[in-house]
Task: inverse folding
């Protein structure tokens, strides 16, 4: 009897041990933490770089995070599901199609930078501004100046003199010489007036543009300082814009890429087609700026710090 009780005690102990081990061992493959959008995008870029190089072993290492990730946090209270099982299936092949994997990872990255279709908060104000300017609104015509009224009076006097010259030939000959002299003086006066007016207009326009455009005399360092000031005040969206401008100005000051405010962000990247390494560094900086500035993606202090690290990495390049 005691022997049988001892056997039952051993079996009960073993059963309890197995149950405890089953409860305490974590599920294999479960997502431990939910990455934010910047982290997830970084994994995608790292995987694409290894796929484009044809590095299968490197791709298998960096693909683990993507395959295990089932959710991504795109905002403070927004989490979206993701599924990268296709990548695991592709890598299970004896000879994975790395160019196809590269293309699909590129498509995922392009989808991430699409602008947010939501309407911005100041949409009504923008619409009012457009409707209050030509061609939707009429501009009040300016009144004639003193010179304009004088020219109008001279033209009316000349018209009367022409009519009188048609009646009296002697008067008409004298009037012809008078009209020629007056016309010459009037022409010279108009030319002088127009030249002075154009010069003054150009000067005023240049002064107004310099005063209204805070980016007219930016340098890479001043743009970086402005970004730091804005970030301390919590305006991360505008701070990201100045960080992006500081990157372009830094490249311009070193002769790597000419800064031209008329170019689009994609045109900047196209001009680096012959410098693959520099383009690889600039692509994530451009993509993040597009999502924040044009897509109105929310940004916090940590996300801004990550973007600042990207810009700092670009400035440390030795090409």
Result:
């Amino acid at each position: 009897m005691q022997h049988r009780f001892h056997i039952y005690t051993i079996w009960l102990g073993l059963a309890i041990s197995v149950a405890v081990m089953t409860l305490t061992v974590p599920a294999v493959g479960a997502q431990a933490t939910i990455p934010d959008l910047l982290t997830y995008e970084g994994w995608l870029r790292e995987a694409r770089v290894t796929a484009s190089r044809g590095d299968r072993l490197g791709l298998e290492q960096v693909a683990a995070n993507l395959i295990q990730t089932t959710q991504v946090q795109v905002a403070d209270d927004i989490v979206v599901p993701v599924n990268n099982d296709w990548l695991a299936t592709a890598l299970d092949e004896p000879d994975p199609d790395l160019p196809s994997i590269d293309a699909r990872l590129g498509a995922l990255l392009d989808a991430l930078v699409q602008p947010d279709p939501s309407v911005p908060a100041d949409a009504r104000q923008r619409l009012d501004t457009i409707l209050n300017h030509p061609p939707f609104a009429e501009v009040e015509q300016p009144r004639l100046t003193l010179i304009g009224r004088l020219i109008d009076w001279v033209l009316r006097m000349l018209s009367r003199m022409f009519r009188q010259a048609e009646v009296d030939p002697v008067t008409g000959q004298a009037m012809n010489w008078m009209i020629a002299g007056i016309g010459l003086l009037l022409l010279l006066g108009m030319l002088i007036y127009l030249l002075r007016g154009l010069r003054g207009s150009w000067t005023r326009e240049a002064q107004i543009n310099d005063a209204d455009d805070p980016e007219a005399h930016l340098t890479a360092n001043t743009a970086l300082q402005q970004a730091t000031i804005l970030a301390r005040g919590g305006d991360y969206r505008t701070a990201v814009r100045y960080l992006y401008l500081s990157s372009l100005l830094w490249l311009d000051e070193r002769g790597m890429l000419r800064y031209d405010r008329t170019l689009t962000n994609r045109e900047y990247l196209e001009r680096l087609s012959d410098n693959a390494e520099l383009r690889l560094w600039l692509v994530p900086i451009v993509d993040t700026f597009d999502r924040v500035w044009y897509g109105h993606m929310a940004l916090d202090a940590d996300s801004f710090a990550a973007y600042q690290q990207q810009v700092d990495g670009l400035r440390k390049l030795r090409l």
